[in-house]
Design goal:
The complex is a heterodimer of chains A (310) and B (363). Chain A has 310 residues and is mainly α. Chain A has one domain: ABC transporter involved in vitamin B12 uptake, BtuC, CATH 1.10.3470. Chain A contains 13 helices and no strands. Chain A is globular, with a radius of gyration of 20 Å. Chain B is an all-alpha fold and 363 residues long. Chain B has a domain of 224 residues. Chain B has 15 helices and two strands. A two-stranded antiparallel sheet of chain B has the order 1-2. The interface between A and B is large, with 51 and 50 residues.
Chain lengths: 310, 363
């Protein structure tokens, strides 16, 4: 086997890992947006999920408990957002920004005692034979459970959204909340649940970062991934399968720039680190320029305040 | 929902517009009290160190103005955009660019400056910020790309660019490879306005921005268009207002003001270009804009309050060993409470079920 091919296996595995937090966060936000709510607080929920998951893993030694805590913390943050926007009818854009700003501060506060503390490794799958397959073995059969869970969420979300009655109702609420309300659907309850789900997914995304991807806690560990996830939802034109494509694309860009940095090519590391952000802008532009397509796919009630009496 | 019901007011309550920020501040203080208590600090002592002690000296008051300056500059610009539903949340990046472009001139003309250098730096700083904001404006008007996401992504790019510049081209040649620029010469530094403090020329610009922002919003046709687009985009369309022009204008304006804020930092209190120019002024300015009700005068007051949270955070960190991150928590809480109480402007809170209330009226 040539040296290049030997390198390809780890790169592929790393790409899947880099895509995982984006996949969690973007799929969660997709469900939220499909219900007609725009939650810009993904970054904040991820950060709080990351630090809470990390703290619990440090205290208990169990990464499973950590992931669960990450999801719960993300959902708690989302609950705050839901109360403000759905019950108190606050502006969703402003509240989402507040959630992120709050999450940045809160996570730093919680995490101050956890900087530089080591945690146990998250066990990785090992299937004798399959994991040992050259190049693709490690990538396909040697990851940890969260990577597979994230991948499994893609068909799961798709099935829920397009294959179940509840998914249909959720989409109806997102398209026209007044009509859904008139038909007797509990718009606020449905949106509340969607927002909580999105929060849990963001929390998992954060916990994956702090427990597994870079097993440590550092302030601002998410480095804008929450915002990239938001862009991915637009990129995917609110379709779960395309979220997967987008997440892999960004995983690829992230890993590619890391490897170029490692090769010692004479490009400043800062310039390479810009690439994922610039790529986000680029794909956003490429998708958004097709206004008809955005209009066709974006939930029609996205970001609009719903009040049953109004 | 039956216990607590929201009943639309016929008209937005003027009283609540002014009262809700006060309620929000009060709620934040109460939560702060509980938070300090839960963390095992003496809450009275901590709140005193945080919010009162910094105001007890001339130097402290001066620092308040120093910190309020970039916040107000950024927030005035952001608020004008927010009014037109243009969500520029990348003020931090535009501020950073202002520091890079304006501050870069101080280094380029190091050793042969003159009276003209500072004015030139100010123009360059504003141009840098405006240029950075022009990218989201272009992408939004030409390609329909959300300015929320593009302006934020560009903030990360700007911060990396600053990091690169301070490690590379801007690095002090005599600085032993330390990632900082030379100290600016006297020609390139904002003059101090009040002796004995660090209050500099930038504060005057902030006041000018407040006045200018008020005139623009309240007294010009552009300001009228901004308000109409923000409140009822459809009506603005029928009236033939050019929304793209407003997007460009608000983004360029807020970018230029943020750029000025950044230049004011490197040519003011910092006095050189460092890898971190701002402790998040551009993000906090979003809170300042909302807390100030998107009104320039309100923003001035809110700017001072938020500046206090920065200074108080530092003071409490030094004096009581409180974690610095608590500043961000306070700022976030304040915005939450403000958004939560905002509901009182357009709705009355009623207790009990609706039917009961109707029955009472009939009886």
């Amino acid at each position: 086997m040539s040296a290049e091919l030997a390198l390809l296996g780890p790169i592929l595995a790393a790409m899947l890992a880099a895509a995982t937090p984006l996949l969690f966060a973007a799929l969660g936000e997709l469900v939220v947006e499909k219900s007609g709510v725009l939650n810009l607080g993904v970054e904040g929920m991820m950060l709080v999920g990351a630090v809470c998951g990390f703290a619990v893993t440090v205290k208990t030694g169990s990464s499973t408990a950590g992931f669960a805590m990450g999801a719960a913390a993300g959902a708690a943050m989302a609950g705050l957002f839901a109360v403000l926007t759905l019950l108190l009818l606050a502006n969703q854009v402003a509240t989402g920004l507040a959630l992120t700003l709050f999450g940045v501060g809160l996570s730093a506060l919680i995490g101050q005692g956890f900087v530089g503390i080591p945690i146990p490794d998250v066990p990785e799958l090992y299937i004798p034979g399959l994991t040992d397959i050259p190049v693709i073995g490690k990538a396909l059969f040697g990851q940890d459970a969260l990577v597979y869970l994230a991948l499994a969420m893609v068909p799961a979300v798709h099935w829920f959204m397009y294959g179940t009655r509840k998914g249909l109702v959720l989409r109806a609420v997102g398209e026209n909340h007044a009509a859904a309300h008139a038909l007797g659907y509990k718009v606020i309850r449905i949106r509340f649940l969607a927002v909580l789900f999105g929060g849990a997914m963001s929390g998992m995304a954060g916990a994956y970062l702090s427990l597994d991807y870079t097993p440590m806690w550092a302030e601002g560990i998410t480095a804008g991934r929450g915002w990239i996830a938001l862009a991915l939802v637009v990129f995917a034109t609110w379709k779960p399968a395309r979220v997967l494509l987008g997440a892999w694309l960004f995983g690829g860009v992230t890993i590619a720039q890391l490897h170029v940095q490692g090769l010692g090519i004479d490009i400043p590391s800062q310039v390479l680190s810009m690439l994922p952000y610039l790529a986000t802008v680029l794909v956003l532009v490429l998708i958004s320029r097709d206004i008809a397509r955005i209009r066709l796919n974006a939930p029609a009630s996205l970001g609009k305040v719903f009040h049953p009496d109004a | 929902m039956s216990l607590l019901r929201l009943e639309p007011r016929g008209q937005a309550s003027r009283v609540m517009v002014y009262l809700t920020p006060v309620i929000a501040v009060a709620l934040t203080l109460v939560s702060g009290f509980l938070l300090f208590w839960a963390m095992g600090f003496d809450p009275v002592k901590a709140l005193h160190a945080f919010f009162i002690a910094p105001l007890m000296s001339v130097r402290g008051l001066g620092e308040l103005a120093v910190k309020a300056t970039p916040l107000v500059l950024c927030a005035v610009g952001l608020a004008i955009g927010f009014r037109a539903n243009v969500w520029n949340i990348g003020a931090e990046g535009q501020l950073t660019l202002g520091a890079i472009t304006g501050g870069g001139l101080a280094l380029a003309f190091y050793g042969d400056g003159g009276w003209w250098l500072l004015p030139l730096m100010i123009v360059a700083g504003m141009a840098g910020g405006a240029l950075w904001a022009a990218i989201p404006a272009f992408l939004r008007t030409r390609f329909n790309a959300s300015e929320i996401l593009t302006s934020l992504m560009l903030t990360y790019v700007a911060l990396l660019l600053l990091n690169y510049m301070t490690h590379g081209p801007y690095r002090d040649p005599e600085g032993f490879a330390f990632p900082e620029s030379r100290l600016f010469e006297a020609d390139a530094v904002m003059p101090i306005l009040i002796q004995g403090t660090r209050v500099h020329l930038g504060s005057l610009f902030a006041l000018l921005a407040v006045a200018g922002g008020w005139v623009l919003i309240a007294r010009t046709f552009i300001g009228f268009q901004i308000k109409v687009i923000g409140l009822t985009p459809a009506a603005a369309g029928y009236a033939g207002f050019n929304e793209k022009k407003i997007i460009w204008l608000t983004l360029l304006l807020s970018g230029a003001l943020a750029g000025l804020a950044g230049l004011g930092e490197v040519a003011g209190p910092i006095g050189q270009i460092t890898p971190t120019v701002s402790p998040g002024y551009g993000f906090t300015a979003i809170i300042v804009a909302f807390l100030g009700r998107l009104h320039p005068v309100g923003i001035l007051l809110a700017g001072f309050l938020m500046a206090l949270s920065f200074i108080g955070g530092e003071a409490a960190q030094i004096g009581l060993g409180l974690p610095k991150a608590i500043t961000g928590v306070f700022q976030g809480m304040l915005l939450f409470f403000l958004l939560a109480t905002d509901v009182l402007i357009r709705y009355r809170v009623r207790f009990g079920a609706q039917k009961k209330a109707a029955g009472k009226v009939m009886a």
